[in-house]
Write a structure and sequence with these properties.
This protein has 423 residues and is of the alpha/beta class. It has 17 helices and 15 strands. The protein has two domains: 169 residues, Rossmann fold, CATH 3.40.50; 244 residues, TIM Barrel (Alpha-Beta Barrel), CATH 3.20.20.450. The chain has an eight-stranded mixed barrel with strand order 6-7-9-10-11-12-13-14, surrounded by four helices. Helix 5 crosses helix 6. It is elongated, with a radius of gyration of 25 Å. The structure holds ligand C2E and calcium ion (2 copies). The site of one calcium ion has 4 residues, from loops.
């Protein structure tokens, strides 16, 4: 039933509440049309053959595990992308895990959708995920390998060894992440960037920390990707920007030597057309001068260099600086330097680890420094841990460094003390 860009959606549910919520949400989109609502698997299958829907939503709140059997029936006869609507209970989670094993491409908690009707974010995200499911078909909506331990891999439909515990953890993280801002569970720590010619701290990179009573301490490498996938990154990223600017202004007002604060920007934030407006408002609200804010981007931020150049142009107009993070690890580093208005490169830690003269890494680092010098870019070496690494960097003329050698990321309450120690 794909009629000129429209996608038919079949809902399998017996609950009026679910039917109402889904109907209301789908009405907000022009492309997704709720074509039919049925109560069980065999009616769903008949519909699949008759109406050819592009997407099926199955409510797991059907009696006797009928949701799972409806899913199996569809997968066995006519595979179509299926999204599971589950509840945030242990039974609901177990069923979701089973359903992903059986080939569902995505899941949503109904509690989230109901609460989402009050705000915009969740509904937009749900609609986006539905379209992504239609677009990607049964191959699924999760990127193949987004996590170092490969647990995204296991979310791929049909993967026989899906790791239920990991999926459960992902769901728990997503659920608690939703309330992390209101519950004040986030915290920023700051890692100094040191000028080795003067031993002065010239800036601070802020790094996000999240501690939750139920899921415990979760490292950013784990929760940032979940925040991105669930659309929560916009809210979280804005909180980080505001908090970092506010804190930097506070240090200035307390009489500390002025330094820049560097904020990591994630891909979704970067591709949000409201970004420069949000940053301008935050600068105004906190009273921080734009030259004390630096934005760190990575090479994977945007596939479209022209779009990225546009966005960065707007940020530069505001007066802030742009740093290319993890430099050297992407595949198009040099093209990015050519096409984008970057002020600084941060040499990735992998080039610094165990740095010694004569090594391939040493040749790469000295070449990066020479190139940056010619291009008038400033350079920070990241992940400096030892005196030896620092010595080699010094000899190559690298002026700015960051790493455990000087300091681990520290909490605000220890910053002043740390600044006096380093001085
Ligand atoms: P990154 O931007 O490359 O941040 C540097 C990471 O290296 C930090 O890990 C830092 O603690 C660690 N590090 C710094 N010096 C050393 C060192 O000498 N040795 C070693 N082994 N590690 C060092 P962290 O805090 O776990 O952050 C990991 C990544 O998470 C960051 O990588 C960044 O990409 C992301 N991240 C952190 N906070 C935010 C945030 O607020 N927003 C976004 N979008 N991403 C964030
Ligand atoms: Ca960074
Ligand atoms: Ca980095």
């Amino acid at each position: 039933m794909s009629l000129i860009g429209r996608h038919g959606v079949l809902l399998v549910s017996r609950l009026e509440r679910t039917q109402g919520v889904i109907a209301t949400i789908l009405k907000q989109d022009e492309q997704l049309i709720l074509s039919r609502v049925v109560a069980d698997g065999s009616a769903a299958l008949a519909c699949v053959f008759r109406d050819r829907p592009d997407l099926i939503l199955i409510d797991m709140d059907l009696p006797d595990l009928m949701g799972l059997s409806a899913l199996q029936l569809i997968m066995d006869h006519s595979p179509i992308p299926v999204i599971i609507l589950s509840t945030l209970t242990s039974e609901g989670s177990a069923q979701t895990i089973q359903a992903m094993r059986f080939g569902a491409v995505d899941y949503f908690h109904k509690e989230m959708l109901v609460s989402g009707l009050e705000g915009e974010g969740v509904v937009t995200y749900f609609l986006e995920r539905c379209k992504l499911a239609v677009q990607n078909g049964v191959k699924g909506v999760y990127p193949a390998t987004t996590h170092p331990d490969g647990y995204m891999d296991s979310l791929q439909p049909g993967a026989p060894l899906i790791n239920g515990a990991l999926l459960q953890r992902r769901m728990d993280i997503e659920m608690h992440l939703r309330h992390a801002i209101t519950k004040k569970e986030f915290n920023l720590v700051y890692q100094p960037v040191v000028d080795i010619s003067t031993s002065c701290v010239v800036g601070m990179e802020c790094l996000l920390r999240w501690d939750n009573v139920d899921v415990g301490f979760v490292p950013p490498s784990e929760f940032i990707s979940i925040a991105e996938e669930s659309g929560l990154i916009h809210e979280i990223g804005e909180w980080v920007l505001r908090e970092a600017c506010r804190q930097n202004r506070k240090w200035q007002l307390a009489g500390l030597p002025p330094m820049f604060v560097a904020v990591n920007l994630s891909r979704k934030q970067f591709n949000d057309c409201r970004l420069s407006g949000i940053i301008a408002a935050i600068l105004q609200e906190t009273g921080l001068e734009p030259n004390y804010l630096e934005i760190e981007i990575t090479e994977s931020l945007s596939v479209d260099a022209r779009l990225a150049a546009d966005t960065l142009g707007k940020l530069k107009e505001l007066g802030l600086r742009i740093a290319m993070d993890d430099f050297g690890t992407g595949y198009s580093s040099l093209g990015y330097l050519r096409d984008l208005p970057v002020d600084k490169i941060k040499i990735d830690q992998s080039f610094i680890k165990g740095l010694q003269h004569g090594q391939v890494n040493a040749i790469i680092v000295s070449t990066m420094l020479a190139m940056a010098n010619q291009l008038n870019l400033s350079v920070v070496a990241e992940g400096v841990e030892t005196e030896e690494e620092l010595q080699v960097l010094r000899e190559y003329g690298c002026r700015f460094v960051q790493g455990y050698y000087f300091s681990k990321p520290v909490e605000v309450r220890h910053i002043e003390e740390m600044l006096y120690q380093l001085a």
